Every structure is written in C-alpha cells, then in structure tokens.
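Summary of Year 1 activities. Much of the first year was spent building the evaluation harness for sequence design. The harness presents a backbone, in tokenized form, and records the residue chosen at every position. We chose the following record to illustrate the format because it has been used consistently in internal testing since the harness was completed.
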C-alpha cells in the first residue's frame, strides 16, 4: 500500500507484484480524498463530511495541516498559516512548543 498525502488531497494505492498499481476508492467512490478535518459539536469529521461542515462553520474546519504539523509555533510556516486562515484556531502546545 502506498499513501500520497498532499496538501489538499490524498490518494491510497494498492501495489502488488506483477500487477499495475491500483488507486483505491474512498467511501464516496472517488480516488481523491480531501485532507480536511472539522471539529464541530464534539464530533470529528474527515474528508467530504468535513467539507460539508466547513461551509456552514468555517471556524471549525482545518485545511492544509501538512504545512504546520510538528512545526515550532513561532516558525514562519505557522505565522503564514495563521495569516491565510484566520478562522482556524491554532494553539501552542506548552510542553513541545509546537502546534496543537
């Protein structure tokens, strides 16, 4: 299995010896899955359900997380993320000093 985790979408491929690589389908029968997380009313949503929630509640949606995962909170990448997505609530982890 191979996973391509991009900024906007992710794909999962099944790799078998002697067989061409096959892109796996998600629950919606599509090959590309949006990399979006939404936290709303105590519920954590991923992919298309998160996109639906993000339209109605943009402050609960997190996009392009690949750019800030594990980054120090005072890094240029995190500052740029906060400027581009002011609705997203980004907090510092006091123990590690990274984005929580």
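For this record, the design step produced the sequence shown next.
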């Amino acid at each position: 299995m191979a996973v391509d985790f991009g900024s906007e979408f992710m794909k999962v491929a099944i790799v078998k010896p002697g067989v061409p690589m096959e892109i796996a389908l998600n629950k919606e029968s599509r090959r590309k899955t949006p990399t979006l997380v939404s936290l709303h009313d105590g519920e954590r949503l991923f992919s298309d359900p998160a996109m639906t929630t993000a339209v109605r509640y943009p402050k609960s949606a997190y996009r392009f997380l690949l750019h800030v995962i594990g980054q120090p909170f005072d890094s240029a990448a995190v500052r740029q993320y906060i400027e581009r997505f002011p609705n997203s609530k980004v907090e510092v982890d006091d123990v590690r000093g990274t984005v929580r």
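The mean pLDDT is 87. Quantitative recovery figures across the full test set are reported in Table 2.
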